[in-house]
Amino acid sequence: MKPAPRQRLRSPRSIRWRLLLWLALALLLSALVVGGITWRAVAAEAQALFDYQLRQMALSLRDRGGILPEQAEVLEDEQLDFVVQVWTLEGRLILTSRPHGALPDRAILGWADMRVAGEVWRSYAVMARGRVIQVAQPERIRRELATAAALRSIAPIAWLGLPLVVLLWGLVVRSLSPLRQLADSLAQRGTTHLHPLSSTDLPEELVPLVASLNDWLARLAQALQAQQAFVADAAHELRSPLTALKLQWQLVRRASDEAQRAEAIAALGEGIERTARLVEQLLALARSEGPEVRTAVDLAELARQVLVAALPVAQGRQTALALEAPHPAPVWGDATALGVLLRNLVDNAVRYSPPGSQVKLHVQPGTATQGPQVRVEDNGPGIPTEERQRVFDRFYRGRTGHDTAGSGLGLAIVQAVAKRHGAHIALEDVPDGGLCVRVSFMATAPSSVGDAQERQESSLS
Question: Where in this protein does the record put region Disordered (predicted)?
Answer without folding.
Answer: 364-385
